[in-house]
Amino acid sequence: MLRLFALSLPLPPGLLPWLQAQLPDGVRARIARRRRPGDQHLSLLAHAALRHLLAPLLGCVPQELPVRILPHGKPVLDTPRPDLHFSLSHSGERVLLGFADQPLGVDIEAIRRPVAPALLRQCSLPAEQDWLRSDADFYALWCAKEAALKQAGTGFSIGPRELALDAHPELGCGVRSAHPVLDGLRVQSSAPEPGYAAALCLPAALPPWRIEYMDPVRLPESRLDRAPET
Question: Count H helices, E strands: the chain?
Fold first, then answer.
């Protein structure tokens, strides 16, 4: 199984109470501490959708989905299901959710131009800078590296210059690193829509993949175990 879903703001009228009802009190309280309403809604959409889609596969209600947080912040299922993994990301007005039968990492980023030269140097290695010709190239690289760090569960405890991409990530590429948890991962970036970049990372060869767009209005009736729409 490999499924990726994108959802977007603004929230449809009347959906907010339903989203809140999918979450345990502690998660709702953490989201409520975000200062901007837009950030609250984005995080609420991400975590409520995740729990709603996964809960039927585990035979529980969304509020009781067994999730634990690893030392560097990666959320994982706290259940003996080696065939079920997830990753989530949100940026701008978009949420990206990934589900697979192996550990994965996904990332989505709203493209903000121009990219500061100092940021480019902080995040890329000289060999990568040979093909960084545009802001879009930078975001393809950034998403690919962040997806790899999410897959490995390290987050930014490992810096972006401590892993190297062996080709342009839009083509699909390998990750090289002195950190064994990262070395050999496979990653690919895409431009799913204007103004956004996204990436997927898996521990082995990447199969063909696409992002399915889910209208938040339809979220309450959506299920992960249904066939993708064509």
Answer: 6, 11
Contact 78, 162 (CB under 8 A): no
Query: Beta partners for 145?
Result: none
Task: Indicate whether 5 pLDDT > 90.
Answer: yes
Whole-angstrom distance, CA of residue 137 vs CA of residue 82: 34
35: exposed, middle or buried (Cβ count in 10 Å: 0-12, 13-18, 19+) = exposed
Assess contact for 158 and 136: CB atoms under 8 A: no
196 CA to centre of own chain: 13
**Closest to 1 in 3D by CA, of 78, 57, 66, 61:** 57
| Alpha carbons 175 and 193: distance in angstroms, whole number | 25
Contact 98, 86 (CB under 8 A): yes
Two tokens, residue 11: 């929230």
Residue percentage of the chain with pLDDT more than 70: 98
List, in order, residues 6 or more apart from 45 with CB less than 8 Å away.
Answer: 7, 9, 11, 19, 90, 95, 216
pLDDT at 103: 95
Query: How far apart are the C-alpha atoms of 104 and 76, rounded to whole Å?
Result: 11
